[in-house]
Amino acid sequence: MTPRLERRAFLAAAAVVTVLPWTSARATPASMAAAIKEVTGDASVREGRVILDLPPLIENGNTVPLTVSVESPMTVTDHIKAIHVFNEKNPQPHVFDATLGPRNGKAVIGTRIKLGDSQKIIAIAETSTGEFWSASADVIVTLAACIEDLT
Q1: Distances (CA, A) of 115 to 77, 80, 93, 143, 149
Q2: How far apart are CA 106 and CA 75, in angstroms?
Q3: The total number of structural domains that make up the chain
Q4: Is residue 147 helix, strand or coil?
Q5: Mean pLDDT for each consecutive 10-residue tract of the chain (151 residues)?
Q6: Residue 104 maps to which CATH number?
Q7: Is residue 72 assigned to a domain?
Q8: Boundaries of domain holding 63
Q9: pLDDT on residue 5
């Protein structure tokens, strides 16, 4: 037989509330840099070889077309291993990772993302030899998505 929980005991237990400190629900340039460091470690990230294509002015941040392409022969010994995309103001700075291999033929990823505000987007390509290449773009958003502001 299970013990019966009295109503008053239940309400008293439910009244104990843990208050968590309030923090902003958006990434910052510093948190984006930390997310990039998690992916790249101590390796240097060089600009070039990556083409980040997205509109510079976006009317609605709910569905922003984004294409990342990387110059690569895509052979067994020299190919793009992964493409990572980061942003500086959405709730999470690490948008997504795409894993690639030599059988992809081309290092191209196309998708749609949400943007909560005007911000910088960075795409980083990771090669099979451990190099990192990048491109960035500044985007102006007139109607934001991802808004979780508690003010």
Answers
A1: 36, 26, 11, 9, 14
A2: 10
A3: 1
A4: coil
A5: 65 56 68 95 96 94 95 95 94 94 95 92 97 97 66 48
A6: 2.60.40.2470
A7: yes
A8: 25-143
A9: 65
Distance from first CA to last CA of the chain, Å, rounded?
Answer: 49
Secondary structure class of 91 (helix, strand, coil): coil
Q: Is 19 exposed, middle or buried (0-12, 13-18, 19+ CB in 10 A)?
A: exposed
Does residue 12 belong to any structural domain of this protein? Answer: no
Total residue count of the chain as it appears in this document: 151
Burial level of 143, CB count in 10 A (0-12/13-18/19+)?
Answer: exposed
- Angstrom distance (rounded) from CA 2 to CA 16: 23
pLDDT (tens digit per residue) in 40-61? 999 999 999 999 999 999 998 8
